Amino acid sequence: MQVNISGHQLDVTDSLRSYVGEKLARLERHFDRITSAQVIMQVDKLKQKVEATLHVAGASVVANAEHEDMYAAIDLLTDKLDRQLIKHKEKQLERQQGLGVR
């Protein structure tokens, strides 16, 4: 998976990069067809915001999270992405098995 991490009004440190990398690697265990990820981190007064777009086979998964702590915002973001990927995977399996509603 190709990961692109950028920051708006924020210097993305090596520790932030490695933390995001670890969290995104966890997502690959649930869904292995992730081709690329775009992560944007920004600071807005007292809120730390993180936005991610994952490009998977047949779709894109987008999630946003904000918190007072950047690491907590990344945790919230990966939880949201994880739920969306599991839902996407279940939909794909239903379509393959012909159980989808028409």
From TrEMBL:
During stationary phase, promotes and stabilizes dimerization of 70S ribosomes by the ribosome modulation factor (RMF), leading to the formation of inactive 100S ribosomes. Pfam families: Ribosomal_S30AE. One of its GO terms (molecular function) is ribosomal small subunit binding. The keyword Protease does not apply. This is Ribosome hibernation promoting factor. GO terms for biological process: negative regulation of translational elongation. Belongs to the HPF/YfiA ribosome-associated protein family. Short HPF subfamily. GO terms for cellular component: cytosolic small ribosomal subunit. It comes from the Bacteria. Keywords: Translation regulation. InterPro entries: HPF/YfiA_ribosome-assoc, RHF-like, RHF/RaiA. Associates exclusively with 100S ribosomes, which are dimers of 70S ribosomes. It comes from Pseudomonas lutea.
